[in-house]
What does this fold into?
Amino acid sequence: MDSKRRKPPASILEIASAAGVSPATVSRAFNRPELLSAATRQHVLDIAEQHNFSPDRLGSSLRSGNTRTLGLVLPTLSNPVFADCFEGAEKRARQSGYSMMMTVTHYDPALEAAAVQRLAGHRLEGIILTVSDARNSVVLNTLKSSGMACVLAYNECPTMSCAAVDNRAAAHDMVVYLASLGHKRIAFLSGPLDLSDRARSRLKGARDTAKRLKLHSVTHHVMSTHTTANSAIVTALLRGADRPSALFCSNDLLAMDVISTLQELGVRVPDDISVAGFDGIRYGTCMSPTLTSIEAPGFEIGRAACHLLLEQIEHGSAASIQVPHRLVRGASAAAFLANADHHNEKITPC
Amino acid sequence: MDSKRRKPPASILEIASAAGVSPATVSRAFNRPELLSAATRQHVLDIAEQHNFSPDRLGSSLRSGNTRTLGLVLPTLSNPVFADCFEGAEKRARQSGYSMMMTVTHYDPALEAAAVQRLAGHRLEGIILTVSDARNSVVLNTLKSSGMACVLAYNECPTMSCAAVDNRAAAHDMVVYLASLGHKRIAFLSGPLDLSDRARSRLKGARDTAKRLKLHSVTHHVMSTHTTANSAIVTALLRGADRPSALFCSNDLLAMDVISTLQELGVRVPDDISVAGFDGIRYGTCMSPTLTSIEAPGFEIGRAACHLLLEQIEHGSAASIQVPHRLVRGASAAAFLANADHHNEKITPC
DNA sequence: CTGAAAGCGCTAACAG
DNA sequence: CTGTTAGCGCTTTCAG
It folds into this structure.
């Protein structure tokens, strides 16, 4: 019936001639209606409507220089905090007539660089990203020197505009809470620190606070990825006299995997050991036990980041926003009982 | 130091003159390297490298007509199945050098229309979407008549290219499973059916199968949203002699909320009543009780949808893919015990 | 208030 | 193999 090559959509010239006006007038009817007489404007819009016409952003972008498109570069959407972040950012963008181009990097700096390069080719007006490590990120330097508007989400960085929680303060709050439950030996679990400045800040916050509270110093245990527990490492850290009574995980997905690993090992949470996460993902409250965590509101971080980005694009400002965090008391962390580690005594060091 | 208005990035003409060749040659060095001598090509690329140049897609798109950008329109990323779908689709797109523009619609047909309109303005080469109701969707008709390449994800639709699980067969499998556990009265819970053709198909599959298996006919209970339980409705359906012994929820998020609502009401799952979901989200296995569900693999659906879309763009084909589903046996659905509804007897109808 | 003309950055078509 | 030329669709001066 209809040919495979469909006819191209009407251009501004056809509308102009159909309406008996110049192309400039058609353009103005859409972009600067105040410059036209009400009659002309309405006439043009009617004709456009009839032809089902709306101006092509491509020509418009090329000529005027603004694409009304933003970029969002996140580690992964499998982590609900980042999915929420997208929703917050995209909603804010949409409110200002911007579209969002998005990609994921899986915490891989090489993919981060490729992502920025690819997106930048589309002449985005600005970009929101979460990088592995804001301090030594080549891609951030490239981006800054290219002059593209740019805001970090989740990363804290003194030299760039960013929207994030205060990771150190949040970790502080968690350690204070765990201490208030009677825990004196706390271990911190995370993925590779060089791939997450957030994990680093959280560890630092935890260590500083433990020292200030005169707890045992916080040990650090590195999993091979950010969100999965290594069974061997978890087993190892349960051994010995200086075994921790609470495990503070650098994010909730890791905490969930740690808990299920512990359960497989026959270690009860929180009876034998307490576990806390970070991020406050909603599924934490459906788990058994419910997850103790720090809520870092993804939607709000995304919204704030996009807001900052738009301000930067429109007014050149380069402010940052610190989004408030909140302690979530769940059942996975409970009061420390001196004899709770009885279970452990039976484990023979191998 | 540097002025607020940074100098525009190098254009192809500057590179051309710097390299002592024509602009067309620079273009070819990037797009059709096989047309150039190795020497010229390398020389041009070196110069480009020095100037940190990469061709602007905007000019390229306008001239050549392809933007190498796809659109993805999903209900929400808060539901992990859709987040996975994005990951699958975007990864596939990236492999073919496409970027992904994305937006969410929160199951609102008006937002669906606005989303498509907005994205179409960017001259996408194709679009993947999940709509509320593929059968009577104005936006789908608009899209088809516009000639834009288009694939549905999750929706099943005989007249369009789509990537989805067989919802009726999947619901069939679930009912067969529940029946095998001894359940004879099954209730189906969902959001408004006119906003979800998937929920409709699943209900139909459940009803047909219940009839074939000579179970009691499946009752249907409508929640005000797709993913939250109405406490009053849940309470009501627990009353009476024909109270169901199993609740089949149209998605996992709803099932999770139903379970927590039941627990608040003092009804034990699965001891007093069994609950099943649909989607097979990964958090289902961390819950207590673990969730019985049908896995509808989001990543695979996204990947397949994007694959179909690219085929359609490149070869005009309009095939569909049925992605296999899988029953996930969790602890939320257990064998029916005749006396299990003792708990119920005590509830006084009000 | 409206029109004419130039050109954003790039690539396709055509020459050579 | 490489250069020349024209123009994708739009907006923006500048003139009226």
Observations:
- Chain A is about 40% helix and 15% strand.
- Residues 10 and 53 of chain A are 6 Å apart (CA to CA).
